[in-house]
Each structure stands twice: as structure tokens, then as C-alpha cells.
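Lab notebook, design round three. We kept the backbone fixed and only want residue identities now. Task for the bench partner: fill in a sequence for the structure below.
Input C-alpha cells:
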């Protein structure tokens, strides 16, 4: 049996038992916040529970490293939609200690790609098309700096409402302990 078979089988029972009733909520976050955090498996539940949020309280945007890689990419779009279309009034950028994107070995990733069938010619074509594959895949050296860089990118974005506080946190993926990087209330422009 495959993972997909397991998922579909479980889902039939989930729906038949009406287990979804315990998760019913609206699409608008009741705590009026959007959280950008990492897709790390240790944070699936911990990222909400350690902050005191339950289902329906917040919008969560997750990606590798909790990083905004482009000012007009999907992550920034999600944050803006959260503010302008879904009623969020605050943003929390939450990196974490021991992140896989911290000092990511891009050469090792490229070696794995090649071993799984990505041809060297494809990588060369991308490079000649102006795509710096190393830059595209690289992570960051310091999680605190990454959180601060994200906050600055948001505050400097021409479409961002500067009256919205953007908080910066770093969570310990083992204990849930938070380090405050930026209190967004201190930076709000009214």
C-alpha cells in the first residue's frame, strides 16, 4: 500500500466519522494574524501550540526557512492577501533554531538532484538563462538575521500597510521556547 492509498483510506473514515466537525471555523483568522514560519516537520503543530493558537486563530504560511525570496513572489502575496482580503491585522515572522536552510549545502543538493535524474545540461541552461541556481537554492547563515531581513523586506514593500505590526520570533523546535527578535508594535507607522 502506498502513502497516497493510506491517506485516501484514512480520509474516507475521517469524513464518514464526521471528525471534521472538530475543525470547523471560518476562513478569517479570529486572532487577526498571519504567521510565516518554516515547513520543518517539528513545527507542524508546535508552531501554533507554543504561541497559544488553535485551529482558526491564524493564517499560516510555510516554506523552506520561513524566507521571503522575492518581493513579488507567492510568500509576499500570501502575507498581503492575509492583510487586505482576510482581515489579518498583524504579521509574525517565525524562524527556528537548527533550521535545515541555515548553511544549506547547495552543492550537496545539486549532487542529489543529478543523482535523481536532473541533467547537467538543464542546470547549464538555467545558468545561461540568467538563473543563479546556487542563489536560488541557498539558505541563510543566521536565523535571526533572516527574520530581520524578512521584516525589512515587508516594511519596505510598496504595497504594505506600514500601520500593520510585523513581529519577529525564533522558536526552539525542541522546546517551543521563543526568542523575540522584533516587537512589531515598536516599528509601526501610524
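Proposed sequence:
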Amino acid at each position: 500500500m502506498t502513502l497516497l492509498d493510506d491517506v485516501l483510506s484514512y480520509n474516507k473514515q475521517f469524513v464518514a466519522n464526521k471528525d471534521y466537525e472538530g475543525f470547523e471555523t471560518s476562513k478569517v483568522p479570529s486572532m487577526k494574524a498571519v504567521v510565516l514560519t518554516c515547513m520543518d516537520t517539528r513545527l507542524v503543530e508546535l508552531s501554533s501550540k507554543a504561541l497559544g493558537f488553535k485551529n482558526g486563530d491564524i493564517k499560516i504560511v510555510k516554506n523552506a526557512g520561513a524566507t521571503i525570496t522575492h518581493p513579488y513572489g507567492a510568500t509576499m502575496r500570501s502575507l498581503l492577501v492575509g492583510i487586505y482580503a482576510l482581515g489579518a491585522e498583524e504579521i509574525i515572522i517565525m524562524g527556528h533554531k537548527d533550521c535545515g536552510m541555515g548553511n544549506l549545502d547547495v552543492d550537496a543538493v545539486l549532487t542529489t538532484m543529478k543523482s535523481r535524474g536532473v541533467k547537467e545540461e538543464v542546470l547549464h541552461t538555467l545558468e545561461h538563462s540568467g538563473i543563479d541556481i546556487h542563489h536560488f537554492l541557498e539558505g541563510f547563515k543566521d536565523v535571526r538575521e533572516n527574520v530581520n531581513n524578512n521584516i525589512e523586506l515587508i516594511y519596505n514593500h510598496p504595497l504594505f500597510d506600514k500601520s500593520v505590526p510585523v513581529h519577529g520570533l525564533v522558536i526552539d523546535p525542541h522546546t517551543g521556547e521563543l526568542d523575540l527578535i522584533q516587537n512589531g508594535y515598536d516599528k509601526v507607522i501610524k
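Keep this in mind before ordering anything: The two ends are 57 Å apart (CA to CA).
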